[in-house]
Write a structure and sequence with these properties.
Number of domains: 2
CATH architecture of the largest domain: 3-Layer(aba) Sandwich
Structural class: alpha+beta
Low-confidence stretches: 1-14, 20-79
Helix content: 25-40%
Shape: globular
Distance between the termini: 76 Å
Oligomer: single chain
Number of strands: 11
Largest sheet: 7 strands, mixed
CATH topology of the largest domain: Ribosomal protein L15e
Number of helices: 8
Length: about 280
Amino acid sequence: MTKKYYSHLTVPHTTSLKRSLFSNFSVATTTTTDDLPRRQGALTLFVRETRDIRYDSFVHLDRLEALVLFFIETNNSIAFQMGALKYVEEIQKKKQSDVIRFLLRVRCWELRQLNVIHRASRPSRPDKARRLGYKAKQGYVVYRIRVRRGGRKRPAPKGATYGKPTNQGINQLKYQRALRATAEERVGRRCANLRVLNSYWINQDSTYKYFEVILVDPQHKAIRRDARINWICNPVHKHRESRGLTSTGKKSRGINKGHRYNNTKSGRRHTWKRQNTQSYWRYR
């Protein structure tokens, strides 16, 4: 018996679940959740006489808020299953819940005791790390780092700013890059032989923000032989975190895709300078 895997279906509420399920069928005998038969903890929606859709949930259907369901077709039924990391992702979305608040509080205490930059044996958020390209294989490394929160104070020795009064501010200046970009740059300097792939937020307190940075070893054979990641081995990707080529770096540069970013293809400052500069040939 062969199984066919269909695309993912995101269901935000129960009504959307019924609408998504019944939209592909002409006849539906079940219209409300109160009429659903329950068998051994499973909820069954009888959509046709010859087929049924069975959903085994860890919560009641009327309390379902957001789940990604996988279609697995069998001979006479379609069963919904959810991967383990999807549970982790859904729990992580509710950061004000008692579980996540306690977990973040305990982990933050532990992170304060460790060094500013240290290597992690494994990602603390495996679902997020995998979405950003991490693989549990040789050649991938995860580093944790903490960055002090707040704005950037201008370095002015003896208070000399050397400028007009409008540009003499020191304290209330806002850094034009995210703290995550600063974290990537510092880790990239510490691990100069590795390439920064991406990073993500893991925790924060009143003083610091904590990030995990995913790095790749460009000299490892497992990386150089993998066609999906060996692009990062090219010399052009050296210290890409310092040149605004990572995800957070492009965000601060205003670079993205789509019709909303037509004027920022190479950066808004570069585009403005090019559009407001008149150039002539010397001999014309």
